[in-house]
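To illustrate the input format used throughout this study, we show a single complete record. The first block contains the structure-token representation of the backbone; no residue identities are included at this stage. The design step must infer an amino acid for every position from geometry alone.
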């Protein structure tokens, strides 16, 4: 049986592609035919992704990068411009939980790391990649947020929650600016997913009671399809 490849010849950048949800999204995009640019710090996880994409007959470019490094995102955008002159799909998925601790005790280092990866990096990605997304005939951007953002504050989660609330506003503002272009930008709230971040946040929980990242990744892929018309929405995996 021939596999359906609705994303054939599309170039997709995925941050946080070394494990968890980002890994699954990258793999599902590759399965749908997209060429993957996988970004994360852990070389081993990226190499596993590369092997899995190759096994599908797909192609991946690995980018070992700390998203908090001063000009890494901007240099990556230059490299994408040189090689492809466009970007069809941008998945800003990388995230940091930081410390779950009272707001009054959050160290500055945690604020910098969490806001840096969860909010400032997506903002820099918007700045660096907007033109490349506009150069696609159907540029699609998906940002992974959380229910603990603009919709449900939770004690001890202030750094993470504030970063995601900021992300929601950032992306929804940008989506309004994108009206009248061919680019669509949406947020995905994945709900609880069986990943390292969730295990760190909820150590007492049985991971097997949670959905596997592959189950959630399909929802992200839907948001990248050329026929997608949603824009500026927070799409919840819980329905
Ligand atoms: O987390 P995890 P998830 N530079 O820890 C990367 C959201 N979410 O898959 O650099 C570059 O397994 C890291 O790569 P590495 C969550 O907020 C989740 O659960 O190699 N990359 C790894 O690939 C996040 O936005 C749940 O360490 C950096 C990835 O990020 C998204 O889902 C619930 C980096 C994190 O993988 C994926 O998280 C919810 C840096 N400085 C929202 N720092 C849930 N799991 O239940 C981290 O509501 N990464």
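Output of the design step:
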């Amino acid at each position: 049986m021939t596999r359906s490849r609705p994303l054939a010849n599309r170039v997709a950048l995925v941050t946080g592609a070394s494990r968890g949800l980002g890994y699954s999204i990258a793999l599902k995009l590759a399965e749908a035919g997209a060429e993957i640019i996988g970004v994360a710090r852990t070389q081993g996880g990226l190499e596993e992704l590369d092997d899995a994409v190759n096994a599908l007959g797909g192609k991946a470019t690995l980018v070992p990068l700390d998203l908090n490094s001063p000009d890494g995102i901007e240099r990556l955008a230059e490299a994408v411009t040189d090689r492809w002159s466009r970007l069809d799909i941008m998945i800003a998925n990388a995230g940091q939980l930081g410390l779950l601790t009272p707001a009054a005790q959050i160290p500055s280092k945690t604020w910098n790391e969490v806001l840096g990866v969860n909010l400032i990096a997506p903002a820099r990605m918007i700045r660096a990649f907007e033109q490349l997304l506009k150069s696609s005939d159907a540029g699609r951007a998906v940002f992974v947020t959380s229910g603990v953002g603009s919709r449900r504050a939770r004690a001890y989660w202030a750094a993470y929650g504030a970063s995601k609330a900021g992300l929601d506003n950032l992306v929804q503002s940008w989506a309004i600016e994108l009206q009248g272009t061919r680019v669509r930008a949406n947020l995905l709230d994945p709900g609880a997913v069986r990943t390292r971040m969730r295990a760190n946040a909820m150590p007492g929980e049985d991971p097997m009671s949670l959905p596997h990242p592959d189950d959630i990744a399909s929802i992200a892929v839907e948001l990248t399809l050329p026929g997608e018309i949603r824009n500026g929405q927070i799409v919840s995996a819980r329905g």
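Structural context for interpreting the output: Residues 130 and 183 are 9 Å apart (CA to CA). DSSP finds seven helices and seven strands in the chain.
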